[in-house]
Amino acid sequence: MNTLSGKHILLGVTGGIAAYKSAELVRQLRRQGAEVRVVMTAAATGFVTPLTFQALSGQPVHTELLDADAESAMGHIELARWADVLLVAPATADFIARMVAGRADDLLSAVYLACDSRVAIAPAMNRVMWDNAATRDNIATLTGRGVQILGPDEGLQACGESGPGRMLEPGQLVDAVAELFNTGVLAGQHVLVTAGPTREALDPVRYISNRSSGRMGFAIAAAAAEAGAQVTLVSGPVNLPTPAGVQRLDVVSAADMHAAVMNQIAATSLFISVAAVADYRPATPSAQKIKKQAGEQSLQLVANPDILADVAALPNAPFTVGFAAETEQVIDHAREKLQAKHINMIAANVVGDQQGFDREDNALHVLWPGGEQALARASKTRLARQLLDLINRQFNSIAREGKVIPLHGKDSA
Q1: How far from chain centre, in Å, is Cα 255?
Q2: ∠ CA(409), CA(220), CA(404), 5° rounding?
Q3: Which residues are paired to 85 by β-bridges?
Q4: How would you classify the pairing of strands 319-326 and 345-350?
């Protein structure tokens, strides 16, 4: 199984002899399904050439802060926003000190300051440098800021001495990076996610549908699995691989999706309705292909079952999250939906005009009774993790109030 499938790993390489190991690290990260981009400091290029990393990553290597082409799009910001994890390996004593000081006078340090995703470093230096009080203080400071410290290992060093300070081996770092995504905060929960569009048949050839790609729902299912949940994904027709650790149920119509959800809901503690379910279906689909005729044709539509409202109305309803895809008055419409359907939370986003559908990124405005928070535009993968964090906080808040036990969707009474 590819443990890092679809993950964006931004690898920072600094100027230490262990930089040669980073070439193998790129190869192993990609073998586990990750997309890898590399940022090198000037000193790092003295140990390994950028061409090596370009060949192994399949991506251009970034070395200059003031790159006219890249900076026209604020290249350091773009790289920081792209990354699911920024991994600096090797991280020299000098670069660790620069991180602590908040320096931003080269590309890698500027990317670090602009990065709001996970950050990890793999220290690599002489054993005396590692044991120096300044380095120990710097490591403690970075740990306090949430930076993950991976290693170092002990053993023979390039200087001929032996002791702590060796960079972890590439295989160890790949395993450690994979663990960064496995938070376990939803361990013991059954999360049910719907994703994609539905298709409502007009005849055996034609159907009514929408532009949903399913990417957001699949990203949420993947994030929930990473958080330790048992995840069931009910998906309309999409062309996406099933996330690792997720049970997938494929459906076609809104009625199919409604039936699949209701079949799973009794064992569900969190229901996240991301699918763009058709509100209406043809009243009487034709058994044969409808032939072209002269003049206008009319189509009678009837309402589909409201999956979100039906789940929220259950006596032992799980914590229920809806999505609102709107073209105007996004927050107002989302708030109305939140109240009308009596759900716990809703995530609103703009669709149309090259937003929302058919894109790798998105932005959300999340509302719940008594609160709201905007999630800035980011990859749908990262946005899914941010949304899961919000959901988990609200979910546990309600559980602490005694309204819901966060297990199998049962009441606390």
Answers
A1: 29
A2: 20
A3: 9, 118
A4: parallel
* 152 preceded by a cis bond (ω within 30 of 0): yes
115 noted as active-site residue: no
C-alpha distance across the termini of the chain, in Å:
41
- Cα–Cα distance measured from residue 263 to residue 272, given in angstroms and rounded to the nearest whole number: 15
Tokens at 44, concatenated: 């790092």
Crossing angle of helices 170-181/19-31, nearest 10°? 50
Please identify which residue in the block is written with the tokens 């990065």: 115
List 134, 158, 159, 340, catalytic entry: 159
Residue 182, phi then psi, degrees to nearest 5: -95, 80
Q: Residue 10's Cα: distance from chain center in Å?
A: 15
Q: Over the range 262-288, which residues count as b (16 or more CB within 10 Å of their CB) and which as e? A: eebbeebbbbbbbbbbbeebbeeeeee
Cβ atoms of 238 and 196 within 8 Å: the answer is yes
Q: Which domains does the chain show, CATH number per domain?
A: 8-181 (3.40.50.1950), 190-400 (3.40.50.10300)
Concatenating the DSSP letter of every residue in 245-293 gives TEEEEE--SHHHHHHHHHHHGGG-SEEEE--B--SEEESS--SSPPPP-
**Can you list the alpha helix ranges (DSSP code H) found in 132-209?**
133-144, 170-181
Residue among 41, 46, 36 nearest 86 (CA): 36
At residue 278, what is the residue type?
A
Its pTM stands at 0.80
pLDDT tens for the chain, 413 residues: list them: 567 887 899 999 999 999 999 999 999 999 998 999 999 999 999 999 999 999 999 999 999 887 656 544 456 788 988 899 999 999 999 999 999 999 999 999 999 999 988 999 999 999 999 999 999 999 999 999 999 999 998 887 777 777 889 999 999 999 999 999 888 889 999 999 999 999 999 999 999 999 899 999 999 999 999 999 999 999 999 999 999 889 999 999 999 999 999 999 999 999 999 999 999 999 999 899 988 888 888 889 999 999 999 999 999 999 999 999 888 888 999 999 999 999 999 999 887 665 556 677 888 999 999 899 999 888 888 889 999 999 999 988 776 565 544 433 333 33
Per DSSP, the three-state class of 398 is: helix
